[in-house]
Design a protein that fits this description.
Helices cover about 45% and strands about 20% of the residues. It is of the alpha+beta class. The chain has 2 domains: about 80 residues, no CATH class; about 80 residues, Nucleic acid-binding proteins (OB fold (Dihydrolipoamide Acetyltransferase, E2P)). Strands 1-2-3-5-4 form a 5-stranded mixed barrel. A hairpin with a 2-residue loop joins strand 2 and strand 3. Helix 1 runs antiparallel to helix 2 and helix 2 packs across helix 3. This is Putative activity regulator of membrane protease YbbK. Keywords: Hydrolase, Membrane, Protease, Transmembrane, Transmembrane helix. GO terms for molecular function: peptidase activity.
Length: about 160
């Protein structure tokens, strides 16, 4: 037990930096917060004469606060809402809006509210169906780098006729 009474501020600093180095190899952001708490305890114990038991309690409390803050507030902000890096099949069934109407001789453009596979706007065509600017469309297929779309109204009518 005597070893506990000889903890110096630089011990906390070394522990903190070791935990930060571990974080480079373990990408969980868990040891980062323990390391940050240890560095703060090192600064506090250097500035204020606090006992080892208080130092340990402060380290535990700070670590818990940092972990809770990470999972509750910070991590939800970093969630990638795009579907970048996923296969093309994730696009089928997505709903977007026509911003350039496709013609028989040229592709149109569909815009999605959330980027799909890295892009918010895609070239599109229909299978003979007329769609106007502002129409909501659903992706039914992919041909090359163009999406095949159909009006959501046409899709709803098709589903209705199938139910009858």
């Amino acid at each position: 037990m005597e070893i506990l009474w000889m903890i110096e501020p630089w011990h906390w600093l070394v522990l903190g930096f070791l935990l930060l180095i571990v974080e480079m190899f373990v990408p969980t952001f868990a040891s980062l917060w323990f390391g940050a708490a240890a560095i703060i305890v090192a600064a506090l114990s250097w500035l204020l004469p606090i006992s080892v038991s208080v130092q340990i309690i402060v380290w535990l409390v700070l670590s818990a606060v940092f972990l809770v803050a990470w999972f509750k507030f910070i991590k939800p902000l970093s969630v990638d809402r795009t579907k970048a890096g996923l296969g093309g099949s994730v696009i089928v069934g997505e709903v977007g809006m026509i911003i350039v109407s496709p013609q028989l001789d040229k592709a149109g453009t569909v815009r999605f509210s959330v980027p799909i596979v890295g892009a918010a706007e895609w070239m599109c065509r229909t299978r003979g169906e007329q769609v106007a600017i502002g129409d909501r469309v659903v992706v039914t297929d992919i041909v090359g780098n163009e999406l095949i779309v159909s009006s959501t109204k046409a899709q709803a009518a098709m589903h209705k006729s199938m139910q009858v």
